[in-house]
Amino acid sequence: xxxLGTAGAPKxxxxxxxxxxxxxxxxxxxxxxxxxxxxxSSIRRRLREFNIKLREGxxxxxxxxxxxDKVKNIIGTNKRIGPNxxxxxxxxxxxxxxxxxxxxxxxRVDPVGCALRSIERQNVHWRTYKVAGPNSLWHIDGIHKLxxxxxxxxxxxxxxxxxxxxxxxxxxxxxxxxxVYDLLIEATTQHGVPSRIRVDxxxxxxxxxxxxxxxxxxxxxxxxxxxxAHNQRIERLWVDLWESVSNEYxxxxxYMEDIFMLDITCARQLWAFQYVFY
Length: 278
What we know:
Protein name: Integrase catalytic domain-containing protein
Organism: Mytilus coruscus (Sea mussel)
Number of helices: 11
InterPro entries: Integrase_cat-core (IPR001584), Integrase_dom_put (IPR058913), RNaseH-like_sf (IPR012337), RNaseH_sf (IPR036397)
Helix content: 40-55%
Number of strands: 5
GO molecular function: nucleic acid binding
Strand content: 5-15%
Domain Integrase catalytic: 130-237
CATH class of the largest domain: Alpha Beta
CATH architecture of the largest domain: 2-Layer Sandwich
């Protein structure tokens, strides 16, 4: 807060750069208010002061045929990628399209994929989840969907519990404590050191737990340990990663084995395979 020396409550210290950054990533006024923990009216007043319009990026006017071509290129052979992921990728290409138009395009371009996702969809009731703020808690875990080919997808991945920012994500051929530690340290140089981390009881987490307790202190929950199923944020990330990326590699690698292009029992072939795909 900033005291102006006049009557009334102090003014919240929110810069134009902060609001521009959030607007760039499609934050709405209510979401901005939740992020700063202030009222929505204060956010809207500050947006007017800085002349920031949240609706500047209006929907691009393109024909259904053009949209279908873009959606088809994004989907490729991945039948699991949904409209929300497609819409994000379109936005990354500076093409803002409404959610409904993207859904309609998916039904036209990929009816089989839409039916598959509808059949497999499972609505999970998540527990209420609250974190104090950015860098309060990082969720860290590994995933072994591709372990058959000695690929530990993100020999660790980390995600900020408050903002859902993916702080690090890396594919490796091991999940040794030193590998996990190096990934965490590299992430902290870019995003800062979190107040706490949430990990499972695996031995690969020993070094990062020791670092956190040494840096932040003991007996305060600097390194929270529990079962992976309760590590909610990172488990959700693994679902998105599988549906958007990993499943295609899994199918490709399995196909390579089916047609005898790859023999994972041969050390030479496995080395060449990892050299190509790492």
